[in-house]
Write a structure and sequence with these properties.
By secondary structure, the protein is an alpha+beta fold. The chain has one domain. It is built from one helix and four strands, in the order ββββα. The chain has a four-stranded antiparallel beta sheet with strand order 1-2-3-4, covered by helices on one side. The model has no long low-confidence stretch (mean pLDDT 92).
């Protein structure tokens, strides 16, 4: 069984704050980043397969820890250039 923990990390150059999913070896397995310039949220799994339950828990942690964008906008107001059709 793979064990994970999380940590918050900043990227000053990218003007981003991230929550990183760390595996038992200390490697970053995935991250969710709040980028304040474009007010965007992204998930990067670095090509790793992750159980859906872990992804769901990781998203909950990220929403709590990343709070809001620097301009005060809520994370639900994140801008995107991607669309997903559920039909």
């Amino acid at each position: 069984m793979k064990n994970f923990r999380w940590q918050v990390a900043g990227n000053v150059q990218g003007n981003c704050l991230s929550v990183e999913l760390i595996d038992e070896y200390g490697d970053v397995f995935a991250d969710i980043s709040r980028c304040d310039g474009p007010n965007a949220l992204t998930l990067n799994t670095y090509g790793n397969d992750i159980d859906l339950g872990i992804v769901e828990a990781f998203i909950r942690v990220a929403r709590e820890r990343l709070e809001c964008f620097e301009d005060g906008s809520s994370l639900t107001k994140a801008r995107t250039n991607q669309r997903f059709t559920t039909e």
